[in-house]
């Protein structure tokens, strides 16, 4: 019989693989479709599928006290994906995902601001290393050049933290993962419609609602949709089975491993030495914050004893 912690690990790995697949398909779609259209498809299609299954199962509406959590998560996930897709259109797949993965650092900052939790020295070091990493990621050997896409990429990590905090709260309720994600995505999509329309009028966001008959694009859209659903259901199951968040935190960064495989096998992009250093600093900072480096050091010491 599979132990509970092993099942939680398996679900988390499945979740990070689906997350990397979502980023990959979104990258392809932003090259072939308007970013605003991809963003709306990214929310409405999974929401329609999940809520349809919920209605078939004759599930009722969420409880009144859960709507606040769902709305907070909807705001977080909508803003997160808006920033992520924008940076994805300007940066490489790996750069966008690394910035997106800074969520755990922002979780610590939110806990400090909202719940007065003291910041550990590891968190302060992680914040500093992330800042230095972003400077190196700019890739300019003559000095730091401000790039809006880097800041927006970091904002995707910040809003990802909001989404993850509310997801953890929802996973401990009586709602299933499909219910929580379905309603959150529907609310996020509805919130984005007027915002995208406003940005479209100002020329900041492109919206093209012309339906494409390209079989490849339709296939990529469907893969993205089911990868999104797989991410949400797997992660919700992992949170339910895990005793603590720290048990799963190190596994979040396997998303970077999967993404790196996609990047170097499917895209002809190369980084400068400065950018490699920047990526390494940001990844290392987040591993330091999650305690993964400490766990690895302890395991190495045990082997040498």
TrEMBL record:
<feature type="transmembrane region" description="Helical">
    <location>
        <begin position="273"/>
        <end position="293"/>
    </location>
</feature>
<dbReference type="Pfam" id="PF00892">
    <property type="entry name" value="EamA"/>
</dbReference>
<feature type="transmembrane region" description="Helical">
    <location>
        <begin position="180"/>
        <end position="199"/>
    </location>
</feature>
<dbReference type="InterPro" id="IPR037185">
    <property type="entry name" value="EmrE-like"/>
</dbReference>
<keyword id="KW-0812">Transmembrane</keyword>
<feature type="transmembrane region" description="Helical">
    <location>
        <begin position="150"/>
        <end position="168"/>
    </location>
</feature>
<feature type="domain" description="EamA">
    <location>
        <begin position="150"/>
        <end position="285"/>
    </location>
</feature>
<feature type="transmembrane region" description="Helical">
    <location>
        <begin position="69"/>
        <end position="87"/>
    </location>
</feature>
<protein>
    <submittedName>
        <fullName>Permease</fullName>
    </submittedName>
</protein>
<feature type="transmembrane region" description="Helical">
    <location>
        <begin position="211"/>
        <end position="229"/>
    </location>
</feature>
<feature type="domain" description="EamA">
    <location>
        <begin position="10"/>
        <end position="137"/>
    </location>
</feature>
<keyword id="KW-0472">Membrane</keyword>
<feature type="transmembrane region" description="Helical">
    <location>
        <begin position="93"/>
        <end position="110"/>
    </location>
</feature>
<feature type="transmembrane region" description="Helical">
    <location>
        <begin position="117"/>
        <end position="138"/>
    </location>
</feature>
<dbReference type="InterPro" id="IPR000620">
    <property type="entry name" value="EamA_dom"/>
</dbReference>
<dbReference type="GO" id="GO:0016020">
    <property type="term" value="C:membrane"/>
</dbReference>
<feature type="transmembrane region" description="Helical">
    <location>
        <begin position="39"/>
        <end position="57"/>
    </location>
</feature>
<feature type="transmembrane region" description="Helical">
    <location>
        <begin position="250"/>
        <end position="267"/>
    </location>
</feature>
<keyword id="KW-1133">Transmembrane helix</keyword>
């Amino acid at each position: 019989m599979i132990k509970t912690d092993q099942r939680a690990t398996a679900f988390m790995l499945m979740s990070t693989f689906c997350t990397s697949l979502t980023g990959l398909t979104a990258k392809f779609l932003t090259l072939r479709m308007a970013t605003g259209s991809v963003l709306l498809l990214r929310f409405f299609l999974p929401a329609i599928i999940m809520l349809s299954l919920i209605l078939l199962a004759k599930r009722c509406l969420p409880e009144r006290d859960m709507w606040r959590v769902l709305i907070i998560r909807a705001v977080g996930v909508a803003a997160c994906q808006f920033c992520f897709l924008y940076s994805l259109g300007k940066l490489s797949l790996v750069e966008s995902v690394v910035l997106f993965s800074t969520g755990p650092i922002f979780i610590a900052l939110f806990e400090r601001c909202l719940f007065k939790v003291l910041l550990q020295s590891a968190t302060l070091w992680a914040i500093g290393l992330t800042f230095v990493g972003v400077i190196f990621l700019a890739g300019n050997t003559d000095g730091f050049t401000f790039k809006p896409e880097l800041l927006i990429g970091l904002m995707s990590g910040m809003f990802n933290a909001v989404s993850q905090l509310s997801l953890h709260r929802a996973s401990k309720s009586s709602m299933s993962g499909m219910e929580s994600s379905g309603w959150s995505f529907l609310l996020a999509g509805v919130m984005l419609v007027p915002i995208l329309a406003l940005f479209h009028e100002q020329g900041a966001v492109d919206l093209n609602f012309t339906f494409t008959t390209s079989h490849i694009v339709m296939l990529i859209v469907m893969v993205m949709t089911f990868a999104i659903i797989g991410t949400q259901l797997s992660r919700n199951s992992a949170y339910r089975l895990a005793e603590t968040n720290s048990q799963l935190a190190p596994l979040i960064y396997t998303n970077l491993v999967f993404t790196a495989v996609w990047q170097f096998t499917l895209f002809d992009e190369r980084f400068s030495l400065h950018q490699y250093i920047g990526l390494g600093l940001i990844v290392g900072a987040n591993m330091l914050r999650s305690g993964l480096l400490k766990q690895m050091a302890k395991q190495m010491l045990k082997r040498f004893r």
